[in-house]
Specification:
It is built from three helices and two strands, in the order αβααβ. The chain is mainly alpha-helical and 50 residues long. A two-stranded parallel sheet has the order 1-2.
């Protein structure tokens, strides 16, 4: 997917990662740099938590 995104001139970004262990594994393996990690944006006050 990352390669397809690059060919299309965009970036493949992982978002909504909430598990600290998963984020740490991505950091240790260097995948955080490959994909770019973004925290989930703050929920709208009217939305319910999943």
């Amino acid at each position: 997917m990352r390669e397809l995104a690059a060919q299309a001139g965009t970036q493949f970004v992982l978002t909504g990662l909430r598990a600290p262990t998963l984020i740490r594994v991505l950091e240790i393996t260097g995948c955080d740099v490959l994909f770019g990690l973004r925290q989930r944006p703050a929920a709208h006050p009217d939305s319910s938590a999943c």
